[in-house]
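Project outcomes to date are best conveyed with an example. Our students and postdoctoral researchers have been running inverse folding experiments weekly, and each run begins with a structure described purely in tokens. The record below, which covers 252 residues, was selected by the lab manager from last quarter's runs and is presented without edits.
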């Protein structure tokens, strides 16, 4: 379940206004919300790496609902998707053409459907230098059962920024990959009331994509930045201290 942006915004305003410490207008709140959501999202990867060491050392709590590595991985589920890549002739590579922004590419499946037998092969992802070395060797040259790939990019019209491409050998007939996409920016949308006040509009809003368990972290994180905006060091210190308590509790 995603975190409702109106709940977060009204809570942030309540805390700021309780002691007349300032006000964050919607535009500024949306910018802070995007920043904090991105920080929390990016923290899942080093946290997961750290927690996985406990799995390898057999010190991880594997009790149902209390395995922190599984709980951390669960938070990434909303951002995981299987994406189909299309072949770009000009670049002789497979192009991601989805609507979202890719953060990472996981398992790649290269399908060789015109061969007999058909192969749906897990593709090994390597660096470009390693790819060149392996593909040029007769002994290690990739096959339909054991294809090889590396990630590159190119600016493809009408896009104005580089897009992710996969170079795969041997050339497959189709490609799909398990991907992690970056979260979309949260937006607290509104209409203007008869008195000039901002009135929340669910239709014009975009909720946080993070799991509902992150609601407190979002509020604390936004308050930390809000303290900078309203120039109140007390808010920054309180929010930072609370964030540290949460982090210690989650990782201990």
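After processing, the design step wrote out the following sequence:
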């Amino acid at each position: 379940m995603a975190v409702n942006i109106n709940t977060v915004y009204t809570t942030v305003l309540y805390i700021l206004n309780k002691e007349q410490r300032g006000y964050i207008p919607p535009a500024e709140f949306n910018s802070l919300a995007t920043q904090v959501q991105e920080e929390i999202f990016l923290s899942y990867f080093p946290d997961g790496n750290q927690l996985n060491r406990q799995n390898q050392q057999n010190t991880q709590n594997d009790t149902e609902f209390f395995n922190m590595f599984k709980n951390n991985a669960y938070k990434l589920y909303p951002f995981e998707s299987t994406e189909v890549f299309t072949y770009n002739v000009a670049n002789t590579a497979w192009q991601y053409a989805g609507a979202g922004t890719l953060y990472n590419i996981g398992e790649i499946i290269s399908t060789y459907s015109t061969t007999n037998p058909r192969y749906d092969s897990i593709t090994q992802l390597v660096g470009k230098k390693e790819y060149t070395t392996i593909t040029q060797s007769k002994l290690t040259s990739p096959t339909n059962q054991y294809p090889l790939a590396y990630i590159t990019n190119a600016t493809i019209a009408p896009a104005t920024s580089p897009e992710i491409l996969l170079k795969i050998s041997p050339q497959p007939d189709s490609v799909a990959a398990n991907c992690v996409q970056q979260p979309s920016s949260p937006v607290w949308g509104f209409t203007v009331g008869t008195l000039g006040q901002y009135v929340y509009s669910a239709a014009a809003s975009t909720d946080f994509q993070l799991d509902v368990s992150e609601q407190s972290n979002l509020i604390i994180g936004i308050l930390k930045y809000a303290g900078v905006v309203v120039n109140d060091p007390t808010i920054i210190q309180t929010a930072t201290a609370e964030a540290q308590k949460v982090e210690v509790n989650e990782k201990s």
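The chain has two domains: 2-74+201-251, 102-181. The two ends are 25 Å apart (CA to CA). The training component of this project remains on track.
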